TrEMBL record:
It comes from Heliomicrobium undosum. GO terms for cellular component: cytosol. This is Hydroxymethylpyrimidine/phosphomethylpyrimidine kinase. The lineage of its organism: Bacteria, Bacillati, Bacillota, Clostridia, Eubacteriales. It catalyses: 4-amino-5-hydroxymethyl-2-methylpyrimidine + ATP = 4-amino-2-methyl-5-(phosphooxymethyl)pyrimidine + ADP + H(+); 4-amino-2-methyl-5-(phosphooxymethyl)pyrimidine + ATP = 4-amino-2-methyl-5-(diphosphooxymethyl)pyrimidine + ADP. One of its GO terms (molecular function) is hydroxymethylpyrimidine kinase activity. Belongs to the ThiD family. Its EC number is 2.7.1.49, 2.7.4.7. The keyword Kinase applies. Keywords: Kinase, Thiamine biosynthesis, Transferase.
Length: 290
């Protein structure tokens, strides 16, 4: 197999449930090599975010350029980008990376001939992180505009939750029809695929839950059973990383999204309680019972 690789561009969560720590653990579980460029440090526990320390935007972008040009990953995943300068700069850098990748291809050491083909163009998975699960803002002023103007036009798969889709589109989402309307609006910003997560939707506060996967040609609902009383941390980061991993393994977007969502929902059913606060889903211990 060719070596599957993903680079995550995200913030640090010292409690290990979200951010780059969660991303790298999820990628490893899927058998994918992970690189990580850090956008900001947080002071954070399993109970919530206590502080935020962004790195200078120019420095973040240099870090991203270094690692993309070195690892040449076919898939890049973004989490908390935090600053408009990072979001806008990444949008511009991505155009350059796509041209570079087109000239030289992915740097994939050959391991065996039965390889899955790596994507011919690199894939960008964007999790548009706005705030932490406990409501602390993780996006500075001007961030939404930077997403709309600079990053959404080059995004392959966007993975907003309901509040993020509302903020990006200005459309209030109360039911599944609103989910479709907001997802279609996001496609108009230039996104190729939207995976709109329905976890926050009151319509399904009962037993069912659904995420919507939509492109200009396709629309699929990913239905599941709602796990009651789930009080978790880092589910969004873990889902986007699982999706990025499945794409790096060569799955097309609909299959990658379905597999990532199914994986996450199983994890939501048996989280790890690692600290004083909420449970995490990014890791499963050998001796953990289902
Ligand atoms: N109680 C639940 N039971 C089963 N699946 C769930 C539950 N809550 C969320 N999910 C699933 O988890 C994924 C993340 O959904 P959600 O809408 O909560 O995203 P999120 O807000 O980004 O997560 P977080 O706020 O924890 O970062 C989706 O695939 C969703 O269907
Ligand atoms: C570092 C980081 N990224 C993203 C989130 C969103 O869950 C978080 N809480 N912390």
């Amino acid at each position: 197999m060719k070596l599957p690789k993903v680079v995550t561009i995200a913030g640090s969560d010292p409690s290990g449930g979200a951010g780059i720590q969660a991303d790298l653990k999820v990628l490893t579980q899927f058998g994918v090599y992970g690189g990580a460029a850090v956008t900001a440090l947080t002071r954070q526990t399993s109970a919530g975010v206590l502080g935020l320390f962004p790195l200078p935007a120019e420095w973040v972008l240099e870090q991203v350029r270094d690692v993309l040009w070195d690892l040449r990953p076919p898939v890049v995943k973004t989490g908390m980008l935090q600053q408009p300068g990072v979001i806008g700069g990444l949008g511009r850098l991505w155009g350059e990376y796509v041209r570079e990748y087109g000239k030289t291809g992915a740097h994939v050491p050959y391991i065996s001939p039965s390889a899955e083909p790596v994507p011919s163009a690199p894939v960008l998975v964007v999790d548009p992180v706005l705030s932490s699960g406990t409501g602390v803002s993780l996006l500075a002023g001007g961030g939404l505009e930077a997403f709309r103007e600079d990053l959404l036009p080059v995004t392959t798969v966007l993975t907003p939750n309901v509040p993020e889709a509302e903020a990006l589109t200005g459309i209030a989402i109360r039911d599944s029809d609103d989910m479709v309307g907001a997802a279609e609006r996001l496609l108009q910003f230039g996104v190729q695929w939207v995976l709109l997560k329905g976890g926050h939707l009151p319509e399904w506060e009962g037993v069912r839950i659904a995420d919507l996967l939509i492109s200009r040609e396709e629309r699929r609902w990913l239905w599941g059973q709602r796990v009651p009383g789930a009080d978790l941390h880092g589910t969004g980061c873990s889902l986007a990383s699982a999706l990025a991993a499945c794409l790096a393994l060569g799955l097309p977007v609909p299959e990658a999204a379905a597999r990532a969502v199914e994986w996450l929902r199983q994890r939501i059913g048996s989280p790890l309680f690692v600290g004083q606060g909420r449970g995490v889903v990014c890791q499963k211990l050998e001796r953990q019972r289902e």
